[in-house]
Amino acid sequence: MLLPTTAATTPEVRLVERINDLLPQTQCGRCTFKGCKPYATAVARGEADINQCPPGGDGTAAALADLLGREPKRVDPKFGIMPLRAEVAWIDEPACIGCTKCIQACPVDAIVGASKFMHTVIAAQCTGCELCIPPCPVDCIEMRPAAD
Predict the structure, then answer these.
(1) Low-confidence ranges of the chain (pLDDT < 70)
(2) Of 12, 40, 77, 104, whose CB has the highest number of CB atoms within 10 Å?
(3) Residues 127 and 107 in one domain
């Protein structure tokens, strides 16, 4: 007996998953999409190019080209600069006022703390997306090299 094809087994869904697996999972939005999975979906549908992911760099763009049978492209600088090394957010805890704006901005829940108490970054969870920096009203967040 043949089972009906479900959404989870369609060729497009499988392709989206394969593309998503190649992406860095920073969820930074630099590609103009609200995360890696929406970008993967757009690439699979031909609605976005393979060179829109600065955190993934030219290596990710080349891997996407290989997967999709396309010519490799360098990351387009209009989407941002590629990081030279892995970095994670760091909070100057004594300067933190506990506003929670960084917590709200973090797409991967790598920042912990409570309202009116200092916050800290769980470095192992931080993807380096930098989305926590702009909303900080006291500029107590900076990017530092990730520990190896």
Answers:
(1) 1-8, 148
(2) 40
(3) yes
CA distance 94 to 97: 8
Q: How confident is the model over 57-95, as pLDDT tens digits?
A: 999 999 999 999 999 999 999 998 887 778 899 999 999
Q: Which amino acid is at 82?
A: M
34 to 39, 93, 99, 131: CA distances (angstroms): 8, 29, 24, 12
- Of 79, 111, 130, the residue that ends a domain is 79
2 within some domain:
no
Query: Would you say 131 and 123 are in contact if contact means Cβ atoms under 8 Å apart?
Result: no
pTM, rounded to two decimals? 0.77
Examine the domain organization and report whether 45 and 13 are in the same domain.
yes
Segments forming the whole domain that contains residue 31: 7-79
Q: For residue 141, give the 3-state DSSP assignment.
A: strand
Q: Residue 43: which of 21, 77, 82 has the closest Cα?
A: 21
